[in-house]
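= Paired protein data =
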Amino acid sequence: RWTYEDFKAVVGRSDLGGRVAFERRAPRSLLSGELVSSSLDLADFGPVIGKARPAAKSAVPATNAKKTPAAASAASAPSSDGQRRVLPQQRFDADKWGTLDAEVHFVGQEVRNLGSFPIGKLDFRVKMDDRRLTLSPLLLQLGGGRLDGDLHIDGRVQPMAAQLDLKLRRLQLDTLLPQLRSTKSAL
């Protein structure tokens, strides 16, 4: 069993800390832990979550480098059809889910670069057990309100079976749809 405890790290403009453990066991190894971030910028984790890689960094130190418009928008670059995407557009499958089990609790106090959506706190527990993925409970502060729920995906069957139970509370549509602010009465 390998454990990395009480760590604090900075990845780009994100901070991450907590505890992770890896345990070799049969039939699947287990990854467990508690992770906390006060500021999570999804652009820093683009390759991990399936978004386009950030533009290559130049050899010029960050204090002297100028950000180009292309580099600034790399995290939310348009897809081949010209539309900006929030979620990855690759095929979602469970081919490699059978290699690892997981039990991880994540709390992000602020989430940035998820399109134009105003995201606050993100709090979830993820469990992977024999190709069954569960996010429960799942909390997302969104648009002045909150989304609570559970997500269960069974990757042992094809097509994958999924169950989603979500509750939205106090959602302010005008913050999610800023282009409609002028037609607030229509909402």
